[in-house]
Amino acid sequence: MMAPSTPLLLTLLLSVLVCVNADWLSSLLSSPKKAQAPPSNIPPPSNSNPNLTFLKWFTNNGGYVNPAITLSVFEMYGRGLKVLDGSLVSHLEVLFSAPSNIILTKSKIMDLYDDSTTKRGIDEVVNDDYAIALELCVQCALGPHSKWDAYLNVLPHHVSNLETFTAHELALLDSASLEKLGNQMQERTTRQYAAVSGLLKNMAEVSGQKAKIPKMGFEMTATRCLSFESFRHYTSIVASRAMVISGEKHLTPLADMPNYEPKNDGRVMANGQDFMKYHVLGDDGSMTVKSDRDFGSGQQVFEDYGDNPNSLYLEAHGFVPFSNPFDCAELPNPVITDEKVLNVMKKLKIVEGEQNYCPPVCVKADGEVETNTRSYAYYAVAALGKFPTKLKYCEVNMDDPAYAGSACIRWGGSGKAVNELISVAANEGIKNFGSSIDEDEKRVKTLEGNEALAVRYRLSKKRILSEVASSVGVVEEKAKVVSDDPTSLAEKVANFNAFIESLNFPTNYLTAYLAGAEQRVGTKASRKIVAGEPYITVPNVAVMSSDTAATDSSLVNELIARGKSMNDDFHTLLFFTMHERFVSKSKSKWWPYLTLLPTLQDYQEYHPNFFSDEKLEGLLGSPVRELILKNQGKIKRNFQGVSGDVAVLEAFGKAWTVENYSWAMTVLDSRSIWWSGMRHLVPLLDLINCQEGPAGSTVHATNLDSGGKNAVTLAPWSFKEGEQVFENYGQPNHIYFLFHGFVLQSNAHDCSLIMASVGPNDGGARDMDELKRRMEEGGFNSYSAEFCVNEKNVKEETENLMNFLSIKDGLTKVDASVGVEHVEAQLKKYPEVEPLADDAGFDEKCMRSLVEGEKKMLGLVLAELQGRKDEL
Ligand SMILES: *[C@@H]1O[C@H](CO)[C@@H](O)[C@H](O)[C@H]1NC(C)=O
Ligand SMILES: *[C@@H]1O[C@H](CO)[C@@H](O)[C@H](O)[C@H]1NC(C)=O
């Protein structure tokens, strides 16, 4: 792959180091000057254009090239791909497809040789790059007899990567690590050449004989092509042009030609997943490359090589991008002087060894550090020094592996504190450079070649650090999303009621209205409703489900069909809902319903799926916090998983974002009404708010009528005309909170969650068969058990908990003291808190009430357990 720099034409000198000692070559070694050869391969006949010869060779070998593109030469970039004048190339269009027989990999090269010694020799070459470089040396020596001749003719004569940097050029990089790496690369190649030169000679001989090349002509080129300089050159060629696919380096003619330019699509780092979307290895070993964006007439076809920092581009490809959103700059870790903080770092194994070493972080211009990294842990713990209460809470919990992470690393506010420390460190980092940004900007204009690359490289680092340094204190919560539907809520309600009217429900005693405060929208009785009578009957056709999923997009319909065929009811409904809400919008038949649902902004305000770590501090100590984090993680993972599917990206385009996906996940998780084993979104029925009913009332249930055409709901209790109608969903508060973001003050079905699980270090895990047997016997079907305690079931649940804990510890007899220990440890996890202010948010009040409930129930369980202990 080529660099955005003017390639220097460097004459490949005949190296005195030539160590090809074949008898038929030895005469040449005594007079190396005679063998001085032209800098490139044997020139092709002068009337042919090497670019066109190459493309012809490519298709003659069974390759496909999109007729809209050709090879061309661009200023600053050198050779690249170009869209023909008057043509267009669109995102995901196939650019070309290279057949297997011209792609070089180590294993394919082994197949070119019959004798097992050569095969083994190639197999033993330390890495793919060197193995492929050897074969390129051989093919170079074969000249016009080589199958790859047309390809070799369009390869650059010089590739400047880190290895070709002189000591002076390396010093210009102003990076100790790269300087070291550059020197190592040079030494390594020299060592390798010495190790493989015998093999190379042998490969060349065998290939020369096979091609029936008259000796003398072959010797001339062979000397040049098999030299150290040539080996080093082809190693650079492979390092910069071959790509790793399925764990093996592939040097693919043409696929190595598009130049780099980032897409700037704001995507997150995903370990090259994005690159793999556009480079597809076929079952027949061919490689198909698709366009990663739209290109207009006459434009250069660029490619985004993936989520890499500049160091990789310099190291392997020998260029420094003009811009790269994935570039990062290394920061020296702040030195820790606080003994307590250092102690936490040692305990959590964030630092190691005598020197308390932790690898330095590489920050991008936005200054963000991924939360699940060791660097984040380092900075988050370092920041605890300024928060004594939080540090104390961390110290109390750091021995519990299940809890140390949330207490010491992802503590509320840690994101902001990490950002601040990073900014300070960036400021320090800038001071370590020997020159300023201004000086470099002036200087880079006067330089060329490797010197220009080196200065451009360090300039990029400085710019990143200065951007990070200047962002102190400006790191805010993510910008609020603006609504894409300006209609007022009152209008939406009116449109919705008209929509419901048009659907002709067989029975409907409800109207939607603005219920105010936390409820937003609710339902009221349009006439008197009597307990037990059907009061809302919704026909199947008025319900969004896998059955009614159909859109005006054939691409989305294909996804829906695929979802159905895999019985993936969830994604079928999700794709349907996302398409109608974010793509069709007001053109969708379902719009009056979808637009009345809580918006993304609403959810960001109150739904736990969108809570920040800081907000979740309100649940510190509670198992509900862990469940919320688990849900949040699940949404992100699912999104990333599904995003790997090109068909999905194509079908949704700009609407496919993690926010829109999270909205749809939240809608489905919180509003689905189940019958016949399937999820349904039921307009109007799902607007009924939740409340405890009077004595004797029933819990919500919707069922299909006998004809299977309508979903019928019976009134849970009686309502007067005009009164707000409620249902009782019969769930404990933590379930309401997890899925809907509210709790009920009065809730007969409430109970508080206590969790316990068996870990690999528990006594019970020593004998897994016995553990399994006892779990089954005790009626536990998971190594992680949930107990839900209220005043009525406290005896029973205490008993269950005690049984579980005894099995967990591998005790032969049920023992109340293990229960006491467990509950006391749980109670210790709740930090001391101030009473809530009167103006505390609804979410804060909900979380506090969950925590208070849990503490109270743990107290009851503890008393119960102590009573039993005393009995013994
Ligand atoms: C083919 O490539 C050469 C450089 O090797 C360039 O000078 C020439 O303009 C190219 N020809 C065409 C037709 O693009
Ligand atoms: C949701 O989808 C729309 C397309 O309708 C898109 O423009 C918007 O950016 C997405 N919203 C977010 C917050 O990602």
From TrEMBL:
Signal sequence annotation: 1-22
Single GO MF annotation: protein-lysine N-methyltransferase activity
This protein's UniProt keywords: Signal
Keyword Signal included in the entry's annotation: yes
Source organism superkingdom: Eukaryota
Name of this protein: SET domain-containing protein
